Amino acid sequence: MPALAPLARTHPKLLLDIMVDDHIVDMTTQSIDLAIRSGWMRDSSLVARKLSDLHEVLVASPAYLSHYGVPVAPDDLRTHRIIGLSRFADPTTLAFKNGQGTTARINMTPGAMTDSVRMLCELALEGFGVARLPSYTVRDALQNGRLQVLLTDWSLPGAGIFAVTLKRNLQPKKVSAAIEALSQFLTKSS
Fold first, then answer.
1. pTM for this one?
2. Where does 11-149 have alpha helices with state H?
């Protein structure tokens, strides 16, 4: 909303009809002009413009870590539980890379599964396991100590935030303006 508010104020006749859903929707049948998707784009007939990188972190609650211990290397995660995002092809496997280029791939036991990023964060806060989450969704919980980042010397594969439309040609000006406002906001925020 902070990205689109200035656009709406500048163009008071612009109607923002915002649908929030963690699932990929059919833009044609639901008459959607613009979708914002995060993660990795699959091949499709849709047009996607990358707006920003999506930085993910591995987190857990202090209560969970006091019970199971703090992992210091990817292999330590084998004794931990993961809260899996069921929309991922393999929600219980994590891939890492460190600064020296070493990679690790770890299969974990699920502690819970969900199809919602918001619920994934709530489950992590409640100590159901380790969670892989976009850094922007856990910023406050990290600052107030309700979650801790794990394995800070290792990174998860990069993803992106994308503006998705049906066509590139003959795009309504309102869609182009919204994409530009989102792009500028995300560029300033990163």
1. 0.75
2. 62-68, 117-125, 135-143
